[in-house]
Amino acid sequence: MKLKNFVSEFLNVTIKNDIEYTGMVDSVRPNTISFLDNPKFAKDINRNPNISVVLVREKDAALLQGNVETVIVENPKAALFSLHNEYCKKYLTYKVNKIAKSASIHASAYIAPEGVNIGENVIIAPNATILCGVEIGDNTTIGPNCVIGEDGFHVFEDLNATKRIVIHDGFVKIGKKVDIQASVTVDKGFMGRDTVIGDECKIDNAVHIAHRVHVGRKTLIASGACIAGSADIGENVWIGPHSVISNRVSICDNAKILIGSIVIRNIKKAISVSGNFAVEHAKHIKSQCS
């Protein structure tokens, strides 16, 4: 069933504009149905030509302009994610697996029966789990006990006020010559933004990379680091042990996030930062000595 028809039936409304995808205000896919829960995001919706239909409360509908079609609902966020989940349950499918003959996959590893693309000379170690929606580039290694392609931690209350995890309909795309060591978890993307790990990245034990994160090529991520959802990590970045990068934070190329740093703001220069909350390392050291 086409998404437009499904939405019309699910919400019991008539919709004129085309709908091809569900998404949020940053959607890069055309003909997206989104939602306005907080009025401060109205400007972002108005600036995004990819959004064709918006679920919105009646009191906020006048904030939306242009060719956006509005659908009045009591709880826009619950309605959008509820219909997204129901549609995915019924109609989300993946392509047949494509696994190179030169790939080495340990007998104890689990490979999902569909939606997996494994390149040449890839090594999948014991007890690794590769789920639907994962692409692994040539000459990459996935270490023991890794879980690649799990749904991320995006929680919403459905139309019955029950907390649910959003079904993730995107991918994990891992580049070439990437080394991922033991017990790393990488969540897949959803709603038009995949999780991407660039070529030649090296990822230490027990790292967590959340949904929709982009990691630039040749970045190094040390043990215990956590990168929250939709973060953008540049190329050749160092992320030290047990550092935390908050959601939607951007870190520029060649920056260094030192051990135990908690990063909640964008890093716009190729500098070293440290501390909780992270600041330029020299400033952090000075503050500790004063």
UniProtKB/TrEMBL annotation:
Gene3D superfamilies: Hexapeptide repeat proteins, MurE/MurF, N-terminal domain. It holds the Pfam family Hexapep. Keywords: Acyltransferase, Lipid A biosynthesis, Lipid biosynthesis, Lipid metabolism, Repeat, Transferase. One of its GO terms (biological process) is lipid A biosynthetic process. Residues 26-82 form the UDP-3-O-[3-hydroxymyristoyl] glucosamine N-acyltransferase non-repeat region domain. InterPro entries: Hexapep, Hexapep_transf_CS, LpxD, Trimer_LpxA-like_sf, UDP_GlcNAc_AcTrfase_non-rep. One of its GO terms (molecular function) is N-acyltransferase activity. GO terms for cellular component: membrane. PANTHER family: UDP-3-O-ACYLGLUCOSAMINE N-ACYLTRANSFERASE, UDP-3-O-ACYLGLUCOSAMINE N-ACYLTRANSFERASE 1, MITOCHONDRIAL-RELATED. This is UDP-3-O-[3-hydroxymyristoyl] glucosamine N-acyltransferase non-repeat region domain-containing protein. It comes from Cloacibacillus porcorum.
